[in-house]
Amino acid sequence: MIIGIPRESATGETRVPVIPDSVKRFVDKGAEVMVEAGLGLAINIDDSAYEAAGATIATNREAMLANADMSLRLRKPTLAEVAHLKRGSIHISFLDPFNEHALIDAFSEAGVTAISMEMIPRTTRAQKMDALSSQASLAGYAMVVLAAERLDKILPMMMTPAGTISPSRVFIVGAGVAGLQAIATAKRMGARVDAFDTRPVVKEQVESLGGKFVEIDLGETGQTDGGYANALTPQQIALQMEGQKKICAQSDIVITTAQLFGRPAPIVITKEMLAVMKPGSVVIDLAVESGGNVEGSVAGEEVEINGVKVIGLANMPGRVAANASQMYSANLHNLVLEYWNKEDKQFDLDLEDEIIKGCVITHDGALVNEMIKNVRGG
User: Fold this and answer.
1) Catalytic annotation, residues
2) Which tens digit of pLDDT belongs to each residue from 196-215?
3) Domain region containing 361
4) Which of residues 314, 341, 367 is at a domain's end?
5) What are the distances in angstroms from CA 124 to CA 128, 202, 308?
6) Is residue 112 within 8 Å of residue 81, measured between CB atoms?
7) pLDDT tens, 258-271?
8) Residue 37 burial by CB count (10 A; 0-12/13-18/19+): exposed, middle or buried?
């Protein structure tokens, strides 16, 4: 089996999909690996490191894609690139299948089996392949570091000859993977941390990291089988907003991480909440690329609203690209090698397997993922 790995071409992407360690794992299993020249330059990995791991360096991107039995990448391909993929081959990357209908149709028409990394089930067995979680964890860390840099105060309490400096207050909205890492990071940096989530079940996790769980009685909320928060009713949203407004008024940093799987992110910080925050406060919206949690945040920009810095910078994991690449690469090789046939030296696509069934979007010229079919009404 030939595995082709093209260089990431999306503007602003600093991560790479596969590092030499994963290439060596593939080669050791009998795969032939081709990587596009310059694949690792964004994180200072030379082509020679990939060659030392057993890869062939390809200088013709289109020819590599046309010859590969499996393509591995991080970002979704363009429609033009899908047309170059080998019919019957397997493509693995983030695909945003809920929204990229034309791209999914292109995979079907090209006869390519498309596997979406977003759709890896959140189960114990699939944990080592869960790229959403691995990248979200790093995003949680990066957001706190960015907020601390933008804030004109220090985070920890400090005793000085001139008196005591009180710790900064950080409010985390959403205690999923990113939120929990943000709580842990802010606490390690000495901040006083409050956190809220619509799922009361995460209270113990928040408190175990040193954060204070904000109690807002919303009635029955719960979570999906995949661990995501359920959408709230308008009445619940009103209660949440009122409770959060009080916390925002006393916070120096607010970080929002609330996302709904397959749907636009909910607004959790309104302009009314921003209006009660202290001038110089910082708000970071992790969900800005999927609709945004903060009213007034702008994707890819930092804006000021009533003296509050609202940061909507994209690709938070890319701010720690070396580690993000390392983790994503491990997610990929864990997925591929989980289904590797040692005798035939190829990837066995078992469509009845729980993980494969969840993440395969197209196969044999058709859309086969039940969740995506339901969303699209087919």
Assistant:
1) 122, 127, 130, 133, 228
2) 998 888 999 999 999 999 98
3) 2-129+321-375
4) 314
5) 8, 18, 41
6) no
7) 988 888 899 999 99
8) middle
